[in-house]
Amino acid sequence: xxxxxxxxxxxxxxxxxxxxxxxxxxxxxxxxxxxxxxxxxxxxxxxxxxxxxxxxxxxxxxxxxxxxxxxxxxxxxxxxxxxxxxxxxxxxxxxxxxxxxxxxxxxxxxxxxxxxxxxxxxxxxxxxxxxxxxxxxxxxxxxxxxxxxxxxxxxxxxxxxxxxxxxxxxxxxxxxxxxxxxxxxxxxxxxxxxxxxxxxxxxxxxxxxxxxxxxxxxxxxxxxxxxxxxxxxxxxxxxxxxxxxxxxxxxxxxxxxxxxxxxxxxxxxxxxxxxxxxxxxxxxxxxxxxxxxxxxxxxxxxxxxxxxxxxxxxxxxxxxxxxxxxxxxxxxxxxxxxxxxxxxxxxxxxxxxxxxxxxxxxxxxxxxxxxxxxxxxxxxxxxxxxxxxxxxxxxxxxxxxxxxxxxxxxxxxxxxxxxxxxxxxxxxxxxxxxxxxxxxxxxxxxxxxxxxxxxxxxxxxxxxxxxxxxxxxxxxxxxxxxxxxxx
Length: 487
Fold this sequence. Notes:
The structure is a single chain. The model has no long low-confidence stretch (mean pLDDT 80). This protein has helices at residues 3-52, 55-58, 70-85, 183-234, 249-274, 280-289, 312-317, 321-341, 367-393, 426-440, 449-455; strands spanning 95-101, 109-114, 146-147, 152-154, 157-167, 173-182, 297-309, 344-350, 353-358, 399-414, 419-424, 445-448, 459-467, 476-484. The strands form 2 sheets. Strands 7, 8, 9, 10, 11, 12, 13 and 14 form an 8-stranded mixed β-sheet that branches. It is built from 11 helices and 14 strands. By secondary structure, the chain is of the alpha+beta class.
């Protein structure tokens, strides 16, 4: 079966799950509609009661003994009739009462007449209405019909509350009729809808899981093979190949992966060959661009590093050629690692010496620091090798390093058949002369004043003063590098 067919079936499963989600949303919407319907009923009862109340009669409740007056009894009886008439099974009015603003404090609301029978739940005339603050609730108003958008909590419980103002014969607002429906009743109705919707949703989820497991098993096998193959290729196992006999879209992907692995294998072999004869950075640049570099140069600020084994001629006279090659290979292996680690480009070997360039392939604002860090790393590497060379070959291996910064011509030199990436100019020559001068000045790392100016805050230097350089008319300031840290 084609993958697209499997995908269609998977979409069917997702559609079922989506329908379950939509049903859940519909259940929630139905619950909202139910709440709104109950709230509308409560508001209707409040408005009806407000229309039936005599505002002028309610104002007579200001006497010293209001409960004993006929006015209080008359209003109380009327409210009880309205309450009892609306205590149906679908919507049951729990409390109905009147509220009036306090004549002393406009922010305080007082109870008027409460239809509740005598007992702890009955509010007395003049009691303060203590509604708990809720940022979602609307402030109680005495001029409009009002239903609270949330359940309101007071000292008697939690309620869905509706208010409607009542007036005197002249139209002056006296207070409001409050109607409370117990939140438990609303919650019970909502829970009935939610349970039904949740049951349907659970059924949809179970069905989706069953179908999802079935199809995931069908899809997991080829995907697992692809994943394992890609993981193996990522680890460098480039001889990994996938079976393409299934004939579906997975086979097409497997074929593409096989071709990719073969290409990477060829590229790896080619790169391995290139880096034997040129810098790994330059080889990577050639491979990534897919083009042979142009035979042209550009003027660029660079930092050059020259390193040379001291007394190599004498060493080679006392050792077999095989030992000389083994020693140099061991030495160069460690030194090149330090150069590459600090973003340097190995330019060339010169017998027992080497030349490295920093900032040649791309702009490097920290090329001076990187060159000095590489030199210090070479110094530490050599210290670790010296003791071993003394024991194994009776050789006291020492090196001299010269570093200089300046403008040079950087690019490819040679012919179309063979070329070399290098740097030429007075900057390079001065770096080489500094390395030669290191033996005379009895120090292993010398930098020019041009390198020193850019890197003086990151290392400890010792001034060597102005030194004369062979082949140059003017002397140059030179510094010995001691170690990392403040100068």
